[in-house]
């Protein structure tokens, strides 16, 4: 798993360390100086390269239209979450694969996707 965030690289690393979640991720990617930010897909492309995976084997979990737009731009499926910046009504305009209200709902949707992603 990787993080692809609109925070700066330094901010992404600091946030995950402060929250104690960095060990759950194989790589952490924020915006690098001189590179475009979201909704440009550069940050998720870096994450996929670090994991050595193709777009069809990825899912972007996002709380903004920027997250969903950058994922769709390169063929990555999306899961929209209601606990972030944009409302689900706004996120639905980007046609996510799923919309969820809780971490539990997200986990329940993601579990079978793991098998489906391997089969692609």
Explain the layout of strands and helices.
Blueprint (H helix, E strand, L loop, with lengths): L1 E7 H11 L7 E5 L10 H10 L7 E4 L2 H9 L3 E5 L6 H5 L5 E3 L2 H17 L1
Parallel strand pairs: 1-2, 3-4, 4-5
Walk me through this protein's architecture.
The protein has 120 residues and is of the alpha/beta class. The chain has 2 domains: 1-53, Rossmann fold; 55-120, 3-Layer(aba) Sandwich (Rossmann fold). The protein is 43% helix and 20% strand. It is globular and about 30 Å long. The model has no long low-confidence stretch (mean pLDDT 93).
Question: What amount of the residues lies in strands?
Answer: 15-25%
Strands, total number: 5
Radius of gyration: 14 Å
* Helix proportion range: 40-55%
Superfamily (CATH H level) name of the largest domain: HAD superfamily/HAD-like
Please write the CATH class name of the largest domain: Alpha Beta
**Main β-sheet: number of strands, strand sense, barrel status?**
3 strands, parallel
Would you list the SSEs in sequence order as H and E?
Answer: EHEHEHEHEH
Low-pLDDT ranges: none
The coarse silhouette is globular
Q: What is the count of DSSP helices, taking H or I runs of 4+ residues?
A: 5
Q: What's the N-to-C terminus distance?
A: 18 Å
Q: On the 0-100 scale, what is the average pLDDT?
A: 93
For the largest beta sheet, what order do the strands appear in spatially? 3-4-5
Number of domains: 2
Structural class: alpha/beta
CATH topology of the largest domain: Rossmann fold
CATH architecture of the largest domain: 3-Layer(aba) Sandwich
């Amino acid at each position: 798993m990787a993080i692809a965030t609109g925070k700066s690289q330094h901010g992404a690393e600091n946030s995950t360390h402060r929250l104690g979640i960095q060990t759950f991720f194989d790589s952490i990617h924020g915006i690098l100086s001189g590179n475009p930010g979201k909704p440009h897909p550069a940050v998720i492309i870096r994450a996929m390269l670090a994991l050595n995976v193709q777009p069809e084997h990825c899912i972007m979990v996002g709380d903004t239209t920027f997250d969903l737009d950058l994922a769709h731009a390169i063929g990555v499926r999306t899961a929209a979450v209601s606990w972030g910046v944009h409302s689900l009504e706004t996120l639905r305009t980007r046609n996510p694969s799923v919309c969820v209200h809780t971490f539990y709902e997200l986990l329940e949707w993601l579990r079978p996707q793991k098998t489906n992603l391997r089969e692609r």
